[in-house]
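Materials and Methods. Structural model of Glycogen debranching enzyme GlgX. The 705-residue sequence of Glycogen debranching enzyme GlgX from Desulfurivibrio alkaliphilus was retrieved and submitted for structure prediction as follows.
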Amino acid sequence: MKGKTAGKRGQPAIKFQTSCGSPLPMGLSRTPAGYNFALFSRHAEAVSLVFFRTNAEEPLAEVVLDPEFNRTGEVWHVLIKNFDPALRYGYRLQGPYDPRGQGHFFQPQGVLLDPYAKALTGGSDWGVAYRRKGRRPDPLASFQRRCLYVEDDFDWEGDRPLNIPLEESIIYELHVRGYSCHSSSGVEHPGTYRGLIEKIPYLQKLGITAVQLLPVAEFNELENTRVNPETGEALKNFWGYSPLAFFAPKAAYAVNGRNGNQVREFKEMVKALHAAGIEVILDVVYNHTAEGGADGPTISFRGIDNTIYYLLDPVTREYLNFSGCGNTVNCNHPWVRHVIMECLRYWVVEMHVDGFRFDLASIMGRGTNGEVLANPPMVEKIAEDPVLARTKIIAEAWDAAGLYQVGTFSSHHRWAELNGRFRDDVRRFLCGHSGSVAPLATRIAGSSDLYAHNGRKPVNSINFITSHDGFTLRDLVSYNHKHNLANGEENRDGDNHNISWNSGVEGETTAQAVLALRWRRMRTAAVILLLSQGVPLLLAGDEFGRSQRGNNNAYCQDNEISWLDWRLAEKNADLLRFFRRLIALRRKYSLFRRDRFFAPDQAEGAAEISWQSLVPGRQDWSDEARVLAYQLHGGKGEPDFFVMLNAAAEPRTFSLPSPPPGRRWRQLIDTAAASPADIVDEAEAVAVRGARCKVANFAAVLLIA
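The predicted structure was written out as tokens:
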């Protein structure tokens, strides 16, 4: 070996036994001959490996790679035969520092993370700042973590992907920490992967088929330096949309996140969820990283090859900021595509996850200068990759720079999309806005205007009304305006266009009429979401009325604003019962989860769906319309359903269509009725008397024949 191995600060040199090594695979891997390290950098002039002992601030040794002996093409590599896998490691790279010229950011004084690291050290305790000897903890230094080797020796005991069809899926979005962190959660290990395992019986009883986890890749929760101006509380990056290492699960979400054990605990969570029949979908962030803009920290990609990993202005070399977070990953560069694909495969093959929700996915459709590509290689590669062929891939089909691609993100049938049009159109109807009835019908029927092309289906639409980003369902009916002062940004952050209505009073109230209207509107929203064609996505806690006190951007709130208060599951047990039974109804009847669109213009008697306003055969698609009803025709051996929706300010009476011969209409749901009459089992359903049905304002009624 022509490279050098040296001790630091008077320490004796470590006698590593080294050889050339191999450029593949990337990252750190164990071979019969030893441990191989491989790192891509096109523009580095010198590369060295830096090793640390556990809890040591100063390096133990540094191995300098010979550019002639330890480099193949643009990959630097070395094999260490007697490497101790308990050591921590990172890289130093030397090269030009010319941010505004060539765009390079080489800073050899820093130790960088391996982009392929499967686990990081230094972040095992949530919210604990990195501490230098003799100094106060420094929140901004907490990203100074090291890479760790993890052995892939987990016993999956035959676990295999569940491969639940999209049309049968009900997705439930949650935050690993926030889901069980509250003292009321009743779990032994709050805020962790194991805490989520303890909540599996609840998830099973609720009836969902998949959990969608907010980012679990390593991030620095302490990168937010703001404080709550009302309390002085230090704020955090609670959500985690700021990745440090794409391959590494968050150590602070493990009970014991040391020495790579976070990988094992994550796998235990996946295995337990699979055993319960629940899939795991990850919210992944490949559009930006925690390095931020030019004034941000150099952690990994920036110091390894800035011009490869990020989009830069071709003239000024400033970061192009389509993510709103200071930088934009150069997703369609061939090498960056390769890294992302290897990361996705790792999570599927080694970690057994079932799918991905791609944050600000439209960025993956931008070229190296930020231009919108007609056929983005990154998007196509994900859809066509054989390893990912049965995983769920869901695009958040917009970015922070105004590119909105709902319905046009990709023509490939594998890509599903978060249907922002569904969210907005349903919200308008629930607020009683003009011109909302016709768009609502299109959304209920599966959004054929967006997805009925190139072989796409209703399941390409991921329907949602609320998500982590915005109001909760309870806040949607309780607030006209965002209330984000606690975020420390003078209420400037968060969306101003919420399409919400407070039902008569802003925020908390004891007015019974207002409260009754709110609970009614929440149940009506649930009916629309769960009985529409497409794939429903629920926000955790909506099923029992969780509030964020009007905060529609709680990304920084590691407290009771974001944590689920499980006492509400008992306090609002009637609402939780409603959700459970509604989910069960959807799962029982395939009419609510079709795998194809309704056939248009069918002859009378052969229609699959029939629309009306107050009278059968008469639709009202005008801007003034506030009511909508439709009949789902079940065919042989299946029941028909009739849904009535009233967003008017007063009750409306609907004339019922004739049920199939020999059948009668029975009432299953009335969102204006008190529990338990708001939703009943079929055996309890009472026959409707006469041919008319009165529906309260902002209520929904469901009949079965």
